[in-house]
Amino acid sequence: MTAGAHTSINGTARRAGVLYLSLLPFGIFSFVYVPSVLLVRGDTAATSSRILASETLFRSATISHLISQVIVVFLVLTLYRIFSPVNQKRAVLMVVLALLCVPISFLNEVHNLVALRALRADDGVFTTTQLQAQAMLFLDMARDGVLIAQVFWGLWMLPLAFLIFRSQFLPRFLGVTVLITGVGYLVDSCLQLMSPGAPMISKPTILAELALPLWLVIKRVDAERWQQVARASPDRPGAAP
User: Fold this and answer.
1) SS3 for 221?
2) Orientation of helix 172-194 relative to helix 202-209, angle to 10°
């Protein structure tokens, strides 16, 4: 294996790790920090007042989430570059499932913007209480939309776990951590959609999710084994049918 090829695949692995880790601050800001500051459970008036007083912060959460979804696109395409030699069909499935959550997330943010528009409406048709109720309805719809997108975020990790198990150039325990994380997201989505407010099991499993990107950044992949897998892949250009 040439030094250039060695550097290329390790650079790709590190890039994937960096992209994956960059999702963390955007997720914390959008789904943890901003809701903790602006949303008051069970108090529609207080929540509405906080959102109107911090409109820029509220909009920033939307922008942060949209940026994270753009990062997801580049992340899965980079992961495809790494794992396609292992099994191209599973790698394509991984990409498709991951990309499905992107348009859902983009469209879902419309609910947050409509909620803000409802709170800012002053046409005299609806009372303040009615407008606040409408805004809370759209905020609830936005939360449900996140759960639907999360279904695909869990699903795309299943073929990724398979690819890691079969890869030979990454340790198998990383496949276990990815599988645990994906199942956690799926279980939480189903539980929350069926029984809102149920305990969430994905909070501790998120720690397991960090194992793969950290490994890709620090350890990267076994470049020699990756090259062997790539040469043996039936999907490589020029491979015998």
Assistant:
1) coil
2) 150
Cα–Cα distance, 83 to 94 (Å, whole number): 10
- Answer whether 237's CB lies under 8 Å from 199's CB: no
In the block, tokens 């890691």 appear at 164
Alpha helices in the chain (DSSP H): 3-28, 34-38, 44-53, 55-83, 88-120, 128-155, 157-167, 172-194, 202-209, 211-218, 223-232
How confident is the prediction along the chain (241 residues), in pLDDT tens digits per residue? 454 555 688 899 999 999 999 999 999 999 999 999 999 988 899 999 999 999 999 999 999 999 999 999 999 999 999 999 999 999 999 999 999 999 999 999 999 999 999 998 876 677 888 888 999 999 999 999 999 999 999 999 999 999 999 998 999 999 999 999 999 999 999 888 888 877 777 777 778 889 999 999 998 888 888 888 888 776 654 343 3
Which sequence spans correspond to the domains of the chain?
3-228
Helices 128-155 and 88-120, axial angle in degrees (round to 10): 170
Q: What is the pTM of this model?
A: 0.88
Q: What is the largest CA-CA distance in the chain?
A: 72
- The torsion angles phi and psi of 120, rounded to 5 degrees, stand at -90, -5
Long-range contacts of 106-109 (CB under 8 A, 24+ apart): 106/66, 106/69, 107/145, 108/142, 108/145, 108/146, 108/148, 108/149, 109/62, 109/65, 109/66, 109/142
Cα-only R_g, the chain? 21
Amino acid at 25: P
